[in-house]
Amino acid sequence: MTETALDRIEAIGAEAEAAIEGAAGTAELEELRVRYLGRRAELTAILRGIAELPASERGAVGAAGNRARKSLEAAIERRGSALDAGELEARLSEDRVDVTLPGAPPRPVGHVHLITRTTRLIEDTMIGLGYRVMEGPEVEHDYYNFTALNHPPGHPARMLQDTFYVQSDPEVLLRTHTSPVQVRGMESQPPPIFMIAPGKVYRRDSDATHSPMFHQVEGLAVGEGITLADLQGTLDEMLRAIFGGERKARMRPHFFPFTEPSVEFDVSCFQCEGTGALAGGERCNLCKGIGWIEVGGAGMVDPNVLGFVESNGYDPERVQGFAFGMGVERIAMLRHGVPDLRRFFDNDVRVLEQFS
Fold first, then answer.
1. In CATH, what number does 114-355 get?
2. HSE (CB half, 13 Å, CA atoms) of 23?
């Protein structure tokens, strides 16, 4: 009996050690531990049955069984350490972590700001009509911001309360409109020219509908035979693309120094469909019962403005054209029902997430 038990313990040890060394992973190694050292394992059963052996045989069987058990435990620990190291190395090579990314929990992906989205909508619309996008400096010279746009010295727009000037140079200021880009555009190429100028502009205003910094998009079309009727058609197509296919544009007489004649242009109200009244009969709160919403200013380019770039082919006796401009914030407020322009710049997440 002693020989048989000792032989079986030796066979179990050899079999288990071979299996342990061949284990391919920690999960398989755990199965082998349970099989050879668990409560129902054969080696465990032999050790539990020592009490039933003759007294002369118990010592040899017990010593051999304990040696085998300790040897297998050591083999499992060694193999486990090796497998853990290998699996860790594999995970590190496969699951590389970009330490430049935000930590857990990850921040949600952001989205384009509503003002940028509105600007791109206008740009895409005008590009589709054959216009090109041009940009210019926000810190501008007095000449481009005023003089070349028919704002002579002494014009009210030059007053300090309307404009931010650079203290070290009275001829340098933050541009009050993107119209200087129109002059720069005509300086850069002869007619015909069809361009829009989006960008930031600056004025000393701050209330629910005005901001010291805001965004404009201005357009310019100059060539032979361009008339006010072309301006009307352009405004119709642009406002339909922005506010819906059923919209109409109208022009009203106005005054701007750099256009003659000058107009303000409106879009038919998209809340009351231009009727001035809502479904219940009450006055439309968006257009104030008029049926039209003011959008921006426009007009035929004043010959005096063309005179500043006449040497580049813009002879006012030969070419003419129109210009228009509008505030991007106003377009966004109308399209999305935002009551206060300042909400665009507060960076309140509750507001920004509404337009994701």
1. 3.30.930.10
2. 27
